[in-house]
Amino acid sequence: MQKKFVANLAFLLFMNLFIKSIYILGFETQVQNEVGAASYGIYFAIFNFSFLLTIVLDFGITNFNNKNIAQNNHLLTKHFSGLFTLKILLAVIYIIVVVVAGLLIGYDTRLMKLLLVQGFNMFLLFFINYLRSNLAGLHLFKTDAIVSILDRSILIVLCIVMLKTDMLKEPDGIMYFVYAQTIGYSISVITAFLIILNKTHTFKLKWNWAFSLMILKKSLPFAILTLLMSFYNRIDTVMIERMLPKGVGDVQSGIYAQAFRLLDATNMIAFLTAGMLLPIFSRMLKHKESVESLVKLISTLLLTPAIVIGVGCVFYSKELMGLLYQVHVEESAKIFSLLMLSFIAVSTTYIFGTLLTANGNMKQLNTMAAFGMILNITLNLLLIRQFEAYGSAISSMITQFLTAIIQVMIAQRIFKFKINYRLINTLIMFAIGVVAINYGSRMLDLNWMMSFVLMVVTSVLWAFVSGIISIKGIFRILKYG
């Protein structure tokens, strides 16, 4: 199982890191530079606002379906048509809720237009995730990897056209970017649907009240978890844009978006890993196999780069922001430092939160997420007016670390994991070493890019020297699985 996991994870990460890194760092940043911080800030706030309401759109069906199909492959053909119809109905309800919520929050006609199109895009995005959950549940990880990069590949081509023709410099240029997303998502939905249709060999739109109510009841705990975690992960820019004076809130939201983009890019590593872990954990737990060794393996595989990335981005925040953006570099660098440190906590959450989800410990996860939501909103209310976007970054970092620690403690208690003091001490020693390496690299009289590369290479070597990654262990996994 470990051999299969590592091989498929390597393929999935390579495909996504290659394509999505090019998109996020090479094109999406240029889009923001073209349309300006204020215009992009409004788009980013509305994106997150529409994301907060996706409990109506998905209702936890994607995570439930991933876990369910992984444990019962034969249910794909039985459930696919019914779930497809249910998802369409939820999409209609979602669009209505988005429009009403936008009117209540005070969006004008221009923002309502953006919100409506973004709401439709969110439906397409979540529909892709649902279709991919079927592929992951069947352990078709390579097919899933190809589908996962299709929309971004299309967006890269469309961004090249928009940047070359100066479409984004027009007064309503951000709308062209949103329409391009619609095209990319639509093609991805059609492609994923045709692949799954080939696996089910049957499809018929039908409405079944009993089936739909059964699915909604079973997926409700997943829906609540999605809602609560969405609030403490995505409400930041919505609160920044709404709480600060008009003009200030737009710009501050754009500055936060600048800093958040690299976290979003690196977060992809943990997110994709979790997407593979959920069906694997689910199947292992169903067959009463021990997951402790896999948890240890994935903890080292994820937390090692997370520490290097998180600490490194603190020391090189100004240079990295200056490389990507033309304005607001100083302000976004401060926010960037805090957000990237929280990547360590986010990676931990993806490991242990996924394990608890696969085991069905939704009550504990929802209690944790409710605490995280209340904490994050409270801290934002206290800090945004005084520190603006930087205050929201402080809130996010505190929330992410506390919720990650809680999930580790819950998993340890439920699975009776032995506290691995050796691993904990090795991680601490490794982190201290990475901090020292960063200090040393900054003291060298080198171009910052050379210094940064030297820091990364030295940190990788330190990972082997400190024992957090073992060459012998890697070969053992690849050889024996």
Outline of the structure:
The protein has 481 residues and is mainly α.
Characterization of this structure:
By secondary structure, the chain is mainly alpha-helical. The chain folds into two domains: 2-418, no CATH class; 420-481, no CATH class. The protein has helices spanning 2-35, 37-52, 54-58, 61-71, 75-105, 109-137, 141-164, 173-200, 209-243, 248-286, 292-315, 317-324, 329-358, 362-387, 389-415, 421-443, 448-466, 471-480. The longest helix has 39 residues, at 248-286. The radius of gyration is 22 Å and the shape is globular. The N and C termini lie close together (6 Å).
Element layout with pairings:
Elements: H1 2-35, H2 37-52, H3 54-58, H4 61-71, H5 75-105, H6 109-137, H7 141-164, H8 173-200, H9 209-243, H10 248-286, H11 292-315, H12 317-324, H13 329-358, H14 362-387, H15 389-415, H16 421-443, H17 448-466, H18 471-480
Helix pairs in contact: 1-2, 1-7, 1-10, 1-18, 2-6, 2-9, 2-10, 4-6, 4-10, 5-6, 6-7, 6-8, 7-8, 9-10, 9-14, 9-15, 10-13, 11-13, 11-16, 12-13, 13-15, 14-15, 16-17
Which structural category do the helix and sheet elements fall into?
Answer: mainly alpha
User: How many strand segments?
Assistant: 0
Tell me about the biggest sheet?
none
Runs with pLDDT <50, length 5+?
A: 477-481
Order of helices and strands: HHHHHHHHHHHHHHHHHH
Per DSSP, the total helix count is 18
Q: What's the overall average pLDDT, rounded? A: 83
| Helicity level | over 70%
Inertia-based shape: globular
Q: How far is the first residue's CA from the last residue's CA?
A: 6 Å
Number of domains: 2
